[in-house]
Amino acid sequence: MRRRFVVGITGATGSIYAVRMLEMVRAHAPDVETHLVISPSGVLNIKYELNIGRRDVHALADHTYSFRDVGATLSSGGYPTAGMVVVPCSMRTLAAVAHGFSDNLITRAADVTLKERRRLVMMVRETPLNLAHLRNMTAVTEMGGIIFPPLPAFYHHPKTLGEMVDHTVARVLELFDINVPGPHWQGTNPSDAAASAEAAE
Ligand SMILES: Cc1cc2nc3c(=O)[nH]c(=O)nc-3n(C[C@H](O)[C@H](O)[C@H](O)COP(=O)(O)O)c2cc1C
Questions:
Q1: Whose CA is nearest to atom 14 of ligand 1?
Q2: Among residues 110, 121, 140, 159, which one has the fewest Cβ atoms lying within 10 Å of its Cβ?
Q3: Contact, 147 vs 137, CB < 8 A?
Q4: In terms of residue numbers, what domain contains 167?
Q5: Could you give the number of structural domains in the chain?
């Protein structure tokens, strides 16, 4: 049986991360099937940032659900999944999950993922952060969720925005044992390490 991977897209900026994640899973993980829910604000941002519609993103997933359908399979712990990612994750959805508000299918599926002790990764995106945001991230972490802000790395020398995005997406997928091609950290090379040691003297 293919592993069920739940993807929630909310209205934070960074919808490109969600689109690339769906594309990468489809291209490189035939043993994984994606189950997608998009919030209305997520649809708005997809249109605004990528100039594509909900149907275009739905076409990248294996199964799609209505945001309001809290009776869908994903809302039950009796429907086994390999976990869930919220990508990108708004502060509104973070707050709802932190406080157990299962008021739509994204927050309900996240709640189920936590209660069943499955892996939940929330790619939260806001800056700067207020105390409510920080406390909500702490609460989700205390419940077993993983807070993974989509912050770009530079050590792999990305040349394009796409390379930056893909690197972050690959790191998140690794948390679900979904391996896609991409640069892996090989350790500093000896000359850089020597320069660093010299600077410390
Ligand atoms: C262009 C745009 C960018 C936004 N970016 C963010 C963001 O980065 N983080 C955030 O928490 N909310 C952001 N918002 C606000 C959310 O979309 C809004 O709080 C919404 O109620 C979230 O609902 P949802 O969690 O159900 O998707 C943005 C809204 C728009 C229109």
A1: 12
A2: 159
A3: yes
A4: 3-200
A5: 1
Question: Do residues 22 and 60 lie in contact, with contact meaning Cβ atoms separated by under 8 Å?
Answer: yes
How does DSSP assign 39-84, residue by residue? -HHHHHHHHHHH---HHHHHTTSSEEE-TT-TTSGGG-TTS--S-E
Quickly state the pLDDT bin for 145 (edges 50, 70, 90).
Answer: very high
**The domain spanning residue 98 has which CATH number?**
3.40.50.1950
How many alpha carbons lie under 13 Å from residue 86 in its C-beta half-sphere?
33
Pair of tokens at residue 90: 């708004």
Q: What is the whole-number distance in angstroms between the Cα of residue 132 and the centre of ligand 1? A: 15
- C-beta of 45 in contact with ligand 1 (< 6 A): yes
CB of 48 closer than 6 A to ligand 1? yes
- Please tell me if the CB atom of residue 91 comes closer than 6 angstroms to any atom of ligand 1: yes
What pLDDT, in 10s, does the model give residues 22-75? 999 999 999 999 999 999 999 999 999 999 999 999 999 999 999 999 999 999
Q: Is the CB of 95 under 6 A from ligand 1?
A: no
Polymer length in residues for the chain: 201
Q: The pTM is what?
A: 0.95
